[in-house]
Amino acid sequence: MRLDSKTALVTGASSGIGRGIAEALAAAGATVAVNHPPGEGSAAADVVEGIEDSGGEAVSLEGDVSDADSVRSMVERFDEAFGPADVLVNNAGILRQSPLVEMPVEQWDEVMSVDLRGVFLVSRFVVPGMVEQGEGRVINVASQLGFKGAEELTHYCAAKGGVIAFTRSLAREVSPEVTVNAIAPGPIETDLLDDITEEWRERKEAELPMGRFGRVEDVAPTAVFLASDAGSYYTGQTLSPDGGDAMH
After folding, report:
1. Per-residue confidence of the chain (248 residues) as pLDDT tens digits?
2. How do the domains of the chain map onto residue ranges?
3. Among the CATH numbers 1.10.1670.10, 3.30.930.10, 3.10.280.10, 3.40.50.720, which is that of 7-239?
């Protein structure tokens, strides 16, 4: 499961699961671009510094995954520095909680623009280079809620279900040169859960067969596996480090 000489772009990598995946890919030998949205440059710089202190190679790369021009520019900068990416991890995402009957339309659009449109946009500009070079790995971070749903998260669940369907469809389009898979974590202890009420959290924790929320280190090894030669026969699949929440 080594990734020596490989290059990887990880979106939303300045914190949470994205940070953990970026660090794990770098530890496996990949040169990693740590994408961050505008305003999170210092957090991304900390990730890069930590990777470099551990002997890895990384750069910070700003880009708003919901904006086509920003994504195009980001990918052009990546290609100029490294050539076409060997690995793309579409991780950037946001989470908002609201009952459907009270949900502002703007909140629905915001979640869709990052969690689903962002996966499309970054893939749209990265995948052609992979196809041209004859190989590549796309790993989309979805959610177990894309399978089972959850109250007060209709927008998030719809977006993540879309990511899973997008993964299967793109895998059929670009095989065998490029593999496309998804990771559908359960609830993981990250800043993404900051907007979730304590009542929702307690109820969710009680449902989990493993009896706890996951940790970033429960998820990151799955990304390394899918990016490595060990995962070369997986495509169109969704792997779920979710504590047994969605047994599909």
Report:
1. 899 999 999 999 999 999 999 999 999 999 999 999 999 999 999 999 999 999 999 999 999 999 999 999 999 999 999 999 999 999 999 999 999 999 999 999 999 999 999 999 999 999 999 999 999 999 999 999 999 999 999 999 999 999 999 999 999 999 999 999 999 999 898 887 777 788 888 888 898 999 889 999 999 999 999 999 999 999 999 999 999 998 87
2. 7-239
3. 3.40.50.720
pTM: 0.95
Looking at the annotation, which residues are catalytic?
156
Angle, CA of 235, 90 and 130, to the nearest 5°? 60
CA 100 → CA 74, 146, 156, 196, distances in Å?
Answer: 34, 16, 11, 15
**Closest by CA position to 179, among listed 109, 248, 143, 228:** 228
